[in-house]
Write a structure and sequence with these properties.
Layout: H1 2-14, H2 18-24, H3 33-43, H4 55-65, H5 68-80, H6 82-102, H7 108-120, E1 122-125, H8 135-148, E2 156-162, E3 168-175, E4 182-186, H9 187-190, H10 198-201, H11 204-214, E5 221-229, E6 248-253, E7 265-267, H12 276-288, H13 303-307, E8 331-333, E9 336-338, E10 340-342, E11 350-354, E12 359-360, E13 369-376, H14 383-389
Parallel strand pairs: 2-4
Antiparallel strand pairs: 1-11, 2-3, 4-5, 5-13, 6-11, 6-13, 7-10, 7-12, 8-9
Length: about 400
């Protein structure tokens, strides 16, 4: 209990607006840990009225308080006990969620989307993009489909050859061993964003949602994943979480998606760290990162079972990674029942989801799901991510 209290107080101290309170109360403040600590000790009761909103100011506090000795002490606390890590993550979240709720938005739909993200960790924003707005992106996907022909329905990665003028001269599918129906074109592999994706990146509502979620006006998209999920008896992804860091993703539906077309599942409220299975899984990721493979019982036909994926994945004894019926019913994960967001909708609908919460792919039983997923660089976006980045190399993150 004492350790959790110390962690909570330390995180709050990092968020304290020392400069504003010093100006308001005419306190002498110099750039030293002793000076800042004295202000905190005397005025921490005013925390709710003096929370910084600027990531540069947070980084300044971080540099003052997080010396090598303190870093080693905190690292030790977080590594030894999942409850300590949960307390740290939850304190960061509770502070950030206050700031999100106090911001103004461009529209009621943005406000509603962010309200659901705070409460559930996922949200559907209907009809965010029109067919006309997605026309260039859809034209590009049609070219890929025409070139690959039947190979568009086989699992693998879209590869391209580009000449010196930047023109695509060849397109092919580098097939993967397990045909789970998922074909991906990833910007990190091909070296560019698909033509037409700038419509999504520049959209005011998308920009506002990401900036408010991270409390950071400097959010830059750095990866896209264009994907086709075709009919298969194997699920392309089981239940998992991606990362310890905050990592909001947007999935734009490029065609109509129903229950037969492998809709994404998100476990509502699993972005919060208040269940044993979430605490265990995120602590395993914090300790080992993606290097360690998940151990346990895997026997169903899904990616984690067939490809032996990282510790962020859930075993088949933890949950149902390959449901016989794809539906809107709640999902039970190691005795905890979560309501689900089911990613069905019309072309142009968008699904926002925090990928440090549990989510799952599905198998397509009939139709092909065509989507594009975009993510901003998560490392320095939120205050939490900035903090966690300081521990890179010491732990698994």
């Amino acid at each position: 209990m004492k350790e959790k209290f110390l962690i909570k107080e330390f995180v709050e101290m990092l968020h304290f607006d020392f400069k504003n309170i010093s100006n308001d109360l005419k306190i002498e403040l110099n750039e030293s840990e002793s000076s800042y600590s004295k202000v905190w000790k005397e005025h921490s009761s005013k925390f709710d009225n003096y929370i910084i909103k600027n990531i540069e100011e947070f980084e300044n506090n971080l540099n003052i308080f997080l010396n090598e000795t303190t870093k080693e002490d905190i690292s030790s606390l977080l590594l030894k006990d999942k409850e300590n890590l949960a307390e740290l993550l939850n304190t960061f979240d509770s502070i950030r969620f206050k700031l999100i709720n106090n911001d103004e938005y461009n529209s009621k739909l943005e406000a509603k989307c962010l309200e659901h993200l705070v409460k559930d960790g996922c949200a559907i924003y209907k009809s965010l993009f029109s067919e006309e707005e997605l026309a260039e992106l859809l034209k590009f996907t049609k070219v890929i489909e025409d070139v690959l022909n039947v190979d568009i329905k086989k699992a693998g990665y879209v590869n391209v050859q580009v000449n010196q003028k930047g023109q695509i001269t060849n397109i092919w599918n580098s097939f993967q061993k397990v045909d789970d129906g998922q074909l991906r074109m990833q910007s990190k592999s091909v070296g560019f964003f698909p033509p037409g994706s700038e419509v999504i990146i520049k959209n005011k509502s998308v920009k506002s949602i990401f900036e408010n979620w991270y409390v950071n006006s400097n959010c830059n998209f750095h990866r896209t994943n264009l994907e086709w999920i075709s009919k298969s008896d194997t699920s392309h992804n089981g239940w998992h979480l991606d990362t310890v860091r905050d990592q909001l993703k947007i999935m734009v539906l490029l065609n109509d998606v129903d229950l037969d077309a492998a809709p994404i599942f998100c476990a509502k409220k699993s972005h919060l760290n208040n269940t044993e299975i979430k605490k265990e899984t995120i602590h395993d990721l914090f300790v080992s990162g993606h290097r360690k493979r998940k151990e346990g019982v895997f026997y169903k036909k899904h990616a984690a079972a067939l490809e032996h994926r990282h510790v962020g994945y859930l075993t088949d004894s933890d949950t149902d990674n390959l449901p016989a019926n794809i539906n809107n019913d709640p999902i039970e994960i190691k005795g905890v029942v979560f309501d689900k967001l089911v990613g069905t909708g019309k072309a142009g609908d968008c699904i926002f989801f925090e990928s440090m919460g549990f989510h799952s792919g599905n198998r397509s039983t009939d139709k092909t799901r065509k989507t594009i997923v975009l993510v901003v660089d998560p490392v320095n976006t939120s205050f939490k991510n900035k903090f966690i980045d300081k521990f890179a190399g010491k732990v698994g993150v």
